Amino acid sequence: MAHDFRFGLAIANGLSDDAVEVAKLAEATGFDVAVMGDHIGAELAPMPTLAAIAAATSTIRLGTMVLNADVRNPVQLAWEAASIARLSNGRFELGVGAGHTPQEYAAIGRAQDPPAVRKRRLMESVELISDLLRGRTVTRSGEFFDVTGACVAGPDLEVPLLVGGNGSSLLEHAGRHADIIGLQGLGRTSKTGIAAPCAGLQSTSDNNSTKSATEHRTGSTTSS
Questions:
Q1: Is the pLDDT of residue 48 over 60?
Q2: 205: pLDDT strictly greater than 90
Q3: Which of 68, 84, 146, 212 is spaced 20 to 30 A from 121 at the CA atom?
Q4: How far is CA 5 from each of CA 8, 28, 32, 33, rounded to the nearest angstrom?
Q5: Strand 180-183 vs strand 200-206: parallel, antiparallel, or unpaired?
Q6: Which pLDDT band holds residue 212 (cuts at 50, 70, 90)?
Q7: Which long-range contacts (CB under 8 A, 24 or more apart) does 185-192 make?
């Protein structure tokens, strides 16, 4: 089946960016979709920022590329996605993945499960989110989630669901339950899984003396 080719802009959510103005410029320039990533730190969180962008734009589509579904309740996430979709007149697309950055799990005080467990949790989340975004009332008991009478959207709401990841089981599952599949590439983090430090003030203690360092991220945007 043929699909139109789209141009998307990945909005860097670093401290030096005005994400709303970047999205407005992308819309004026003719981009089809603007997306934001999801890394915990002294940056703008994607969902409230995309809600603000929705209020300041009128035609460009908005999305996440991708949210770490492993640290989010799927019913709450589906509710937030449905809300932004309504606020943007149907311009929102939800992208989710299994999570991969160790220091983000450490930052929220949660253990990072092995990849196979995180992928199974993602697949269960995707099934729940997919049903909820299609206006269904969901009651089910699974390996990770027990849901009773959950409903977050009407049947007329359309929120395309993207699943990012790798591995045959996850990709096969995404082919059945998602609208878009994002193939996860290699090299997103170092061999240790540690990405760039958090932008902002960092303090370390050494022999009762405190050293402070400030890092500024450029917040440049990239197109894809």
A1: yes
A2: no
A3: 84
A4: 10, 18, 9, 11
A5: unpaired
A6: very low
A7: 188/100, 189/100, 189/101, 192/102
Q: What's the mean pLDDT when you consider all of the chain?
A: 82
> If you search the block for the tokens 């958090």, which residue do you land on?
198
pTM as predicted: 0.80
Q: What is the mean pLDDT of residues 183-191?
A: 47
Tokens 């908005």 sit on residue: 62
Residue-level length of the chain: 224
What is d(CA 159, CA 62) in angstroms, rounded to the nearest whole number? Answer: 11
Residue type, 120: R
Contact predicate 11/221, CB 8 Å: yes
Domains, the chain, in order of start with CATH, read: 8-223 (3.20.20.30)
Distances (CA, A) of 47 to 15, 52, 84, 209: 16, 9, 8, 39
Q: Give pLDDT, residue 182.
A: 83
- Pick from 15, 27, 94: nearest CA to 56: 27
